[in-house]
Design brief:
The protein is α+β, with helices and mostly antiparallel strands and about 280 residues long. The protein is about 25% helix and about 30% strand. It has one domain: Fumarylacetoacetate hydrolase, domain 2 (Alpha-Beta Complex). The chain is built from seven helices and 16 strands.
Amino acid sequence: MEEGRQIIDKSFLALAQELQHDLDERSKRRIFSEGRGPNSVEEAYKLQRALRSVREARGEKVIGFKVGYTSKGVRGNLEGIMGLTESVHGYLWDSESYKNATVVDHRRLAIEGELGVKLLSVDSDDVSEWEVEYEPIIEIHMAGMDGPKDDDLGRRGLELIGTNCIHAGVVHSTNTKRCLIGEISLNEMMTVSVGKEKVEQVTLSELRVGDMLGPVATLSWLLKKLKSEGNKEEALLREGAFVICSTPGALHLVPPGSEVRVEFSGLETSCTAAT
């Protein structure tokens, strides 16, 4: 996706190169553990965009966006720690797109069950009228925050944004369904299982932004947010782009060797944590 390129703040490139090394290794993120990270939400997104530049320089391609930190299950009691007043967004990468039933890296592994949509038609100004292919997906995360303890006073959200929202990949379903995004059921249950245990059953109605619910709410927020940032990245929300719409539930740690399964609307997606 060549569209949506923005001017990178070069002062963040060195930090981004160091951070990307630690993300690749799934090791402690030193710029945060040593207190050298961003000092505001604006700076955190500048760092995230610098990470994009680092990854594109080595041949990776942005294929869409993720939205996060939206549901009650994720926010929970973390709002005072995170210091965030709204959802967050990050990039999806071609190098982190996995087929159903894949084996994934177990290091720092946590997952969320989510709805993913491939944009087929974005001609309408009304997001609810966008045509999509949808599927349950497993979002892979690098669990944990590495910032110092005083970051618990409201700075964890800067690490969340700056690390591309601790995103580490998407596991896709074998099958999809096609409809207008506003037609996707908000009342049908999404089930997440880790091992033999059902750890979550939740509906997309848990996704709320203002007075809007479900994937229409999160995509509308994303479109508005990208436009407000002034980097022209809303151009990436075009036909063929993929968006994961934020989990309606919570983040779940996954032990090595465990199978993860997400089911929604007669579709399912699975993966297994490596041992």
